[in-house]
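User: For documentation purposes, I need each entry recorded in a consistent format: the amino acid sequence on its own, followed directly by the corresponding structure tokens. There are two entries in this batch. Please keep commentary to a minimum and don't merge the entries.

Assistant: Recorded as requested. Entry 1:
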Amino acid sequence: PREGEEFAREVARVRSVAPELARAHLRTALAGPLPTALDRDDLPERAAALLEWVWREAVRPYWARQRRVLEADVVARTAQAGRGGWASVLDSLRPGRTRWLGQNRFQINHHEYPPREISGAEMVFVPVTPQRHGWVSWDDGERYAVVYPCAGVLAGTGDRAVPAGLGALLGPARAGVLVLLGSPLTTTQLTAVTGQGLGSVGRHLKVLREAGLVTRQRAGRAVLYGRTAAGDVLVDAAASPAGRIPSRP
């Protein structure tokens, strides 16, 4: 969507696209001929109807939490830029596909398309979840979007199960925070992933830090929390059979 544009207006623009142009865009996206089912004159109308259905059934009911997750990803990318510069952020959007090449060149995929000159155009970066892949879209050569998946715990991947013993020891909510901190996260990210309030997350982090299970470090403007070695041992022991402390390299 364009800045300030409502969803209904965006869908109306999709409906107004000429059928031949819609088919041309799909051929580019698929890097080949269209399947018979998509080679039709009512393609824009059907695409608009699909967008409305996805929004109504798969996005709107969960939008409050999804928005928190997306905002948390933006915070994480900003912190990463503070640590390693924007080149590191661009390289990590879709590892192995997106890559900053230097000299104002940005690789977005492995397709053998000729380079596209976009000087003066607007480029936006759009996180999505749940999704493992990304894509690129553009609007009349004036606006480009690089769509990328939220990474790690923000994307809903990974094992977040709280061992029963750890939950009994620390309390389920606090134990859940400790489990999630196998990778450094900000309070904003923890709030997004757990659904707990910012105050509750802050209290859990305070207790865990005082117990020596969690540490924190500043990354640019963000503060990242992560497990200490003692925190790792506690989580690993709780997750292992019979609560035995697993051997560590």
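Entry 2:
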Amino acid sequence: MSDVKLENLEVKETALDDLDLPVKLKFGYLSSLVLKIPWKNLYNEPVIATIDGLYLIVVPNKGVVYNEEKAKKNAAEIKQKTLARLEEARKNRRKPPDPTQDTFVEKMVTQVIKNLQVSVSNIHIRFEDKYTNRHRPFVAGVTLEKLDFQTTNENWIPTIHRDIVKIFHKLVLLDNLSVYWNSGSELFSDLHDKAEIRTKLQATIHTGNNPPTVLEPITMQAKLKLNQKPETDGTNWKTPKIDLSVDMKTLALAIGKFQYQDILLFLEAQERFNLATQYLKYRPNLNEFKGHYKEW
């Protein structure tokens, strides 16, 4: 068993800069990440991934600068991927793949998925915007108390498959997934104490006792049956490839007047950003346009 354990990680604020996204990371922290991978016995032992305490704050990115070298590199990568897809399609036309034969990679992925166990808890991803509406800053975010992804038998009892099975049974347990959009709220990104930011993000994870925001906390259970090869299992597709059953207690959605106005303003801002991105290479790297007529 090979274990990877990381604790108390601070995510760099430059983590998203190379992606040229309309947002940038203002604060990032990961309490714990544990990976247990049985490299010597992947066929009989589970792969376990555990994430606890992920807190992120992103803000609008007002400093996207055109980089000619990066733009050329991205364009070249897109062309290479397109050529690779065309070449793969050409090979498949000449010699169609045998659906009954799995590659080594496919077999390995199947074995990993068969006994994969994932546990995610205490997640808070928050977006803070004080530019779109300067008179009324708003915050939006997603919080999650717990998510478990378990391997079970046909009776939905957690187990480990050591033998070959045609149908995987996965049980997904979701506790208190919530989405909020609050107008005129406190901006955590303005705080200077990172420990205080982390404490506030952790304290505002919805546990069912907080008042509903945009999406009231959701608790649900999902049962997934995954048929690996419905085309070759002899049932002539009578057994579906994916059979999903979801049991959700409550689904409540509410949007107030200010939230609706902020959403419209935010969408307009994103539309302007997407339009400006097309002409970014013609725009000088300036924070103000007054007094810089030569550069423009």
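Summary note for entry 2:
The mean pLDDT is 82.
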